[in-house]
Amino acid sequence: MRHTLGSYWRLLGAQVRSQLQYRTSFVLDVLATMLITLTEFGAVALVFERFDDIQGWTLGEVAFLYGLVELSFGLMDMTFAGFDPARFGQEVRKGTFDRLLLRPVPVTWQVLGSDVTLRRFGRVALGVGIFTLALNLNPLVWTVGKLLYLPLVVLGMVLFFGGLFITGSTITFWTVESFEAVNILTYGGSFLISYPMSIYQEWLRRIFTFMIPAIFLNYYPALYFLDKPDPLGFPAFAPFVAPVAGGAVFVAALLFWRFGLKHYHSTGS
Amino acid sequence: MRLFWEITRRSFRRHLTYRTAALAGLVTNSFFGLVRAAVLVALYGDREVVAGLDVQSIITYTGLTQAVIVYLSIFGWYDLMNAVHQGEISADLLKPMRLFSFWLAQDLGRALVGLVLRGFTIMLVYALIFDISYPAGVAQWGALVVALALSWLLSFAYRFLVNLAAFWSPDAKGIGRFAFVIVMFFSGFLMPLRFFPDWVQTVAYLTPFPHMLNTVVEVYLGVVTGSALVQALLAQALWAFGLVALCQFVLSRATRRLVILGG
């Protein structure tokens, strides 16, 4: 294990050094990443001037959901970049993934160490910014419980999104080319839970409750933090299962990944 | 001119071969469209009309914006940049055709496949799920075709111009990312421009971006009519041909400083 972790850190170190080599390029990338989040959230915020609320959720409350997702997705995207399905699909297609299988270090750690997208730091920073805005627009009544639970919610979401990335990458073992529909899981999932789940039609909400437990990761914790009533009538513990739900998705994804690895056939090119 | 259409035809057929990818993309675009429609409908709440758009129009809007993603390469286009950085551009420059026309013809083929496989199909999915609106009458359909054609030309000229940065900078990709994110905001892709405060709309209309997408949407939904419609199409044409001219100018500068490293 020490050998494995040592290799992992070395791989990461090499990535960090190489990315910082091209200063201008790196700075531009960070700024562009920030601009994406800024324009997307900005568009929503500007439109709120006209609409005031979205089914009883104010801009500050939506910013709470949005900021947490951006922050968590950004953190996940930095650490799990090796599992980004778009990137990983390329490795499978070109056959470069085979190289990892030959090395004497567990392959999961190698994939994890194969990329760390420092530029996503921009997304994390803006996530924090939007979250701060949320707290300003809509001051929370903080309790010890809330303070202790907040990092666990972020951890739950990081594991959840990480699980989605791993699942998406595993699918490319079979589809070979990067499969655009995988974006529904990753970017679709994060887009969906940036808004209150109560606004979606029943069937959509069911899918993201029972098939993918996304509703417990952001929406229910937010109800607890914002002291909002639950319009859907879930059990009272629903806001507190975020880390468990995230962990479950992550473990399931790892099992699927193991299964995929066993059945992997190289493209042979 | 025959050469131009031949290249377009071949590019069309080449892009047509990626049908599984198109299907996967269709599923993705439809999903995002559905979620965006849900968000906008929830924002409307009890309101019937906001800034001249009723609920039916706003649902149709989410379909339209998803339908033109591939047609207009909304998420970015770096092909020319890559050709410059990898040196393939030298082969293109040797071809008995102007570089701009060569890439224009290829992009036309790509865009038409996008329009058929990813544009019409998404609207079809929308028509099955929602009660969407359609342009009424020959005049509006005609205006829509003109607006769509001009939006593609304008979008291509802009993308080409952004890609020309590769002749000057090895960091062109970073510049490109900026250039394309700005389009998403100011073209009305993220939200209809009419929903924004007046000052944002004023700023947007100082740029070519609303003419790339917002005009198509407004023509389709029939919110611009009469002389305003003619003006909108004229503005599109002016920006499109203006940017095409600018491309020629910058391109002539770019090729003069190009150095290809042999390998």
Walkthrough of the structure:
- The complex is a heterodimer of chains A (269) and B (263).
- Chain A has one domain (2-262).
- Chain A has helices spanning 2-21, 23-51, 59-79, 85-94, 97-102, 107-113, 121-137, 144-175, 182-192, 202-211, 219-225, 242-262; strands at residues 53-54, 57-58.
- Chain A is mostly helical.
- Chain A has a two-stranded antiparallel ribbon.
- By secondary structure, chain B is mostly helical.
- In chain B, helix 2 packs across helix 6.
- At the A-B interface, helix 2, strand 1 and helix 9 of A face helix 2 and helix 8 of B.
Task: Give a short synopsis of this structure.
The complex is a heterodimer of chains A (269) and B (263). Chain A is an all-alpha fold. In chain A, 71% of the residues lie in helices and 1% in strands.
Please describe the topology of this protein:
The complex is a heterodimer of chains A (269) and B (263).
Chain A: H1 2-21, H2 23-51, E1 53-54, E2 57-58, H3 59-79, H4 85-94, H5 97-102, H6 107-113, H7 121-137, H8 144-175, H9 182-192, H10 202-211, H11 219-225, H12 242-262
Antiparallel strand pairs in A: 1-2
Helix pairs in contact in A: 1-6, 2-3, 2-7, 3-7, 3-8, 4-8, 8-9, 8-12
Chain B: H1 2-16, H2 19-44, E1 49-50, E2 53-54, H3 55-67, H4 79-86, H5 89-94, H6 99-129, H7 137-163, H8 172-186, H9 198-204, H10 214-221, H11 226-256
Antiparallel strand pairs in B: 1-2
Helix pairs in contact in B: 1-6, 2-3, 2-6, 3-6, 6-7, 7-10, 7-11
Largest interface: A-B, 36 and 36 residues
Strand content of chain A: under 5%
The count of DSSP E runs of length 2 or more, i.e. the number of strands of chain B, is 2
Number of helices of chain A: 12
Instruction: Note the main sheet of chain B.
Output: 2 strands, antiparallel
**Class based on secondary structure composition and strand pairing of chain A:** mainly alpha
Q: Strand tally of chain A, please? A: 2
Major sheet strand order of chain B: 1-2
Instruction: Sketch the major β-sheet of chain A.
Output: 2 strands, antiparallel
Distance between termini of chain A?
32 Å
Give me the number of helical elements of chain B: 11
